[in-house]
Structures are given as C-alpha cells and as structure tokens.
C-alpha cells in the first residue's frame, strides 16, 4: 500500500515524494521480517518450516517492487532531473543507490526478461534458504567427542564444563563433546594445546554439508552459481 501511494501521487516526482517516501516505506514489513534473522541464528523445526513457506512470498514481494514500471518511472524522473533538486552528498548517494537497485533488480528489462529474472530470483531464494538450513543442521549436529580430560589441556574450565554438559545431552555422559557452533568449537582452536583435537575440530567445521547425505550442499552450491551466472548475463554482465 505504501508503494501504491507513491505511484498514485499525481504531483511532479521529487526527491521527497519518491526517494524519501520509498526509503521510509516498509518499516512494518521489516519488523515482521525478523523471522529471517531468527532463522539464521535460532531455528527450531517450526521456524524452518515457516521460513520455507515465507521465502517464496517475500521473494515475490521484492520482485513486484523492483519491477514496478510505474514506480521506476518516478525514480528515473528524479534521477534524470536531479540537478534541479539541489541535493547534498547524502541525498545524491541515496538517489544513486535507489536508482541502481532498481536497474539491478530488472527495471530496464523487457517483459520477457523480467519474467525470466523473477523465476531465477525465486529459484535462488529457495536454494539459498536450503543451503542455510543444511548448514545450520550440520553446525548443530556435528560433534567431536573426547573421553579423557587430558585431551583438553589448556581449555578454560568453563568451556570444559560446557563440553561435559553437551556430551551428556547427546548421550555420552562422562565424555566431553564439541559441536560446530562458534561458542563450542572456537575455544578449542584458541586455547587447547592438543594439536590433534584442534585438527579434528577444524576439519569437522570446514567439512560441514560435505558428506553426501540429505544435508550435502555441493549440488545446491553448483545450482546457485549457475543461476547467478545466468542472472548476470541476463543483466548484461559477462559473469
């Protein structure tokens, strides 16, 4: 509705009624989109399912704005006539970034090109979400476990206690476990004098989503790169 109000304004397009109005739009939407941040940091099953439901909707919403011809016409009118608005450096920068975001969002493409771009964006959003969710799964569920306190030499007591609690949680009471969350594995790399344990943790961290199972990201990565290349060429770039 905020976008529609900008488009429906019959006054001459100005920096205030187009660029500023656009910059101030979507604040309620941004608050509602906090689910995306939570999904990247604290993602139980219910939230992951919600993210898979919401991602196509938010991608379509973004496409509808960036490819709105009437809205872009107003942005372009301000951009083409910026000299008469006596803009300061910050205002010029906002105008340039706004215009650039529309161009890179497909505003200058023909109808067929926009349709193609919208499909690419939708595929990318789904793949990128799956990539993140796979990575979060392996981050939370990949463990390095030791059964001797001697192997933790140099590690501060608070981290040793946390490792014991994690081991008990995953059914290995009496041992010490580390998952690939930074708060768990980084202290090992930073403080532990056990080179072999540091190596195991380091390799486990860097080998997430690379096990040929349902959470493997290699094929997803390939598809993302191919789609990004297709998108770049559609937008007129070599790569």
Kindly list the characteristics that best describe this protein.
single chain, 239 residues, mainly alpha, 2 strands
Radius of gyration equals 24 Å
Question: What portion of residues is helical?
Answer: 55-70%
Helical region count? 12
Provide the structure class. Answer: mainly alpha
Contiguous uncertain segments of 5+ residues: none
Name the shape in a single word: elongated
Number of strands: 2
Sheet having the most strands: 2 strands, antiparallel
Strand content: under 5%
Terminal residue distance: 36 Å
Give the overall average pLDDT: 95
What's the SSE pattern? HHHHHHHHEHEHHH
Q: What's the arrangement of strands in the largest beta sheet?
A: 1-2
Explain this structure.
The model has no long low-confidence stretch (mean pLDDT 95). This protein has 239 residues and is an all-alpha fold. The radius of gyration is 24 Å and the shape is elongated. It contains 12 helices and 2 strands. The chain has helices spanning 2-8, 15-24, 27-32, 34-41, 45-66, 69-80, 89-104, 111-141, 157-169, 182-191, 195-206, 218-234; strands spanning 144-146, 176-178. Strands 1-2 form a two-stranded antiparallel sheet. Helix 6 runs antiparallel to helix 7 (89-104).
Concise summary:
With 239 residues, the protein is mainly α. Helix content is 69%, strand content 3%. The chain has helices at 2-8, 15-24, 27-32, 34-41, 45-66, 69-80, 89-104, 111-141, 157-169, 182-191, 195-206, 218-234, and strands at 144-146, 176-178.
């Amino acid at each position: 509705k905020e976008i529609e109000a900008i488009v429906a304004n019959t006054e001459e397009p100005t920096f205030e009624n187009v660029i500023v109005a656009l910059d101030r739009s979507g604040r309620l939407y941004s608050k509602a989109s906090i689910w995306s941040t939570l999904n990247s940091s604290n993602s139980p099953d219910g939230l992951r399912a919600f993210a898979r439901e919401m991602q196509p909707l938010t991608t379509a919403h973004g496409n509808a704005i960036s490819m709105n011809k009437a809205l872009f016409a107003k942005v372009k009118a301000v951009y083409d006539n910026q000299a008469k608005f006596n803009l300061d450096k910050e205002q010029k920068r906002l105008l340039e970034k706004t215009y650039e975001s529309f161009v890179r969002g497909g505003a200058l493409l023909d109808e067929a090109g926009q349709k193609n771009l919208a499909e690419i964006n939708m595929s990318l959003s789904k793949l990128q979400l799956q990539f993140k969710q796979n990575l979060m799964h392996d981050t939370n569920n990949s463990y390095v476990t030791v059964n001797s306190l001697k192997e933790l030499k140099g590690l501060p007591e608070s981290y040793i206690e946390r490792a014991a609690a994690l081991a008990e949680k995953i059914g290995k009471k009496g041992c010490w476990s580390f998952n690939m969350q930074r708060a768990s594995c980084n202290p090992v790399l930073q403080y532990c004098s056990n080179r072999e344990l540091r190596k195991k943790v380091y390799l486990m961290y860097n080998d997430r989503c690379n096990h040929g199972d349902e959470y493997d990201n290699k094929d997803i990565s390939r598809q993302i790169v191919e789609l990004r290349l297709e998108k770049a060429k559609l937008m007129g770039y070599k790569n």
